[in-house]
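Progress report, Aim 2. The chain analyzed during this reporting quarter is listed below.
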Amino acid sequence: MSTLVHEFRATYAFMERNANLVKRYWSWELVWMVYSIANSLSVSFIGMGMEKISGVSAVDGRFLVLYLVIGTLVWRYLSSIFYWITDVIGMERWEGTIEYTLMAPIRRVTHMAGQTLWAVLYSMFFTAIILVVTVWMFDIDISNANLWGGTVMLLAGSLSFIGVGVMGSVLPLLFPERGSQMTHVIIAVLLLVSGVYYPVEVLPAFLQKLAVASPATYVLTGTRLALLDGTPTRELWPHIWPTLLMGLVAIPLGLWIFGLAERYAKRTGKLHRNG
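Predicted structure tokens for the chain:
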């Protein structure tokens, strides 16, 4: 029991450190918040603009706005989790603590647990603010939306993106100079094939096959059903279970891969502070 309490305290310590980093760089967080809100609104206004661009009055601009809003918010949430986790090494290098953290007598799963719990809480809070601003800006009626079902879909999708993020965090560890930039390739491919701003069906056949392997595809579909159609939570199960299965596979696999990369980095002297 004492060992378990110690691990929980260590996990909370990593969460508390991230909270302190956010408070220290609060001005950057404010800039990122304003940028995210502006970006989300810009994408959403495309829905209203389609009526003007197409010149077809039959185009339902309000529906397109909701479609794009949900895609933008879900993607903002999932990508935020991904970047918080993949930046675990870059953050240590930035703070000059990479040697102390990775050489400390602490389980790596404890370290990653603190990082991932903070990523989920921070991303959920961040997304909620953008949602409130977007609903106010477009006067969106969410009275018929299944908000609980949408939240369940986001939490289910979190597991798979945590696993993908842990795998992606290996790149900054192995490639100090360009590893952080390389993680953008992963998120860009997922953005392309997951149907964030358009239905997956419009993609070429080979990309549609990749979409099946993207957890974001199921999260986006399920969340849109919950928020646009008010689909009951129990009927979202066909979209929930694939993300849970991907998470159950990706998280242990990611930790195993990170362990291999960490031992290699220690053996080859890659735990230096400057990339």
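The CA atoms of residues 174 and 245 lie 28 Å apart. Residues 2-268 form one domain. These observations will guide the mutagenesis work planned for the next reporting period.
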